[in-house]
């Protein structure tokens, strides 16, 4: 296995695409693969996947909900629960902050990749009504 290749075999790139060699593209390294898994989990709505109806944190729909500290707290609890359930074997959440300010919902996530110990982060933002 090449250095930086995903642990546990070859994985599909997210979003799915065909590589230059005509085969399905693979992520460049484990960190990219884990980031793709996180994005899928956070943006997938529960019930969206027929054979995994409980998969997803539903973050995309939250931008259309009320935007106040109570909603941010509920969103944080939902995200935390789903991250632990679906990706707890892959990442350890170090920081999860959900902020609802005016018309902007922000999610800041810092995580450690279990297999490598590497710490990464991502920020998602969206505006609602």
Show the helix and strand layout.
Blueprint: H1 30-43, H2 59-62, H3 69-87, E1 91-101, E2 104-113, E3 119-127
Antiparallel strand pairs: 1-2, 2-3
The largest beta-sheet arranges its strands as: 1-2-3
User: What is the residue-mean pLDDT, rounded to a whole number?
Assistant: 82
Form type:
globular
Number of helices: 3
Q: Roughly what percent helix? A: 25-40%
CATH class: Alpha Beta
Written as H for each helix and E for each strand, in order along the chain, the element string is HHHEEE
Counted up, domains total: 1
How large a portion of the residues is in β-strands, by DSSP E?
15-25%
**What is the structural class?**
alpha+beta
Domain IraD/Gp25-like: 29-116
Protein name: GPW/gp25 family protein
Pfam family, one: GPW_gp25
InterPro entries: IraD/Gp25-like (IPR007048)
């Amino acid at each position: 296995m090449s250095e930086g290749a995903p642990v546990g075999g070859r994985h599909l790139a997210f979003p799915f695409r065909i590589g230059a060699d005509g085969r399905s593209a693979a992520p460049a390294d484990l960190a990219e693969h884990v980031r793709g898994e996180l994005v899928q989990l956070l943006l997938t709505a529960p019930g969206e996947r027929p054979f995994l109806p409980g998969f997803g944190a539903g973050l995309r729909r939250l931008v259309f909900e009320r935007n106040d500290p109570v909603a941010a707290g509920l969103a944080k609890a939902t995200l935390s629960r789903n991250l632990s359930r679906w990706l707890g074997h892959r990442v350890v959440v170090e920081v999860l902050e959900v902020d609802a300010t005016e018309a902007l919902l922000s999610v800041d996530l810092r995580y450690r990749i279990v297999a490598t110990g590497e710490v990464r982060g991502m920020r998602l933002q969206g505006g609602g009504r």
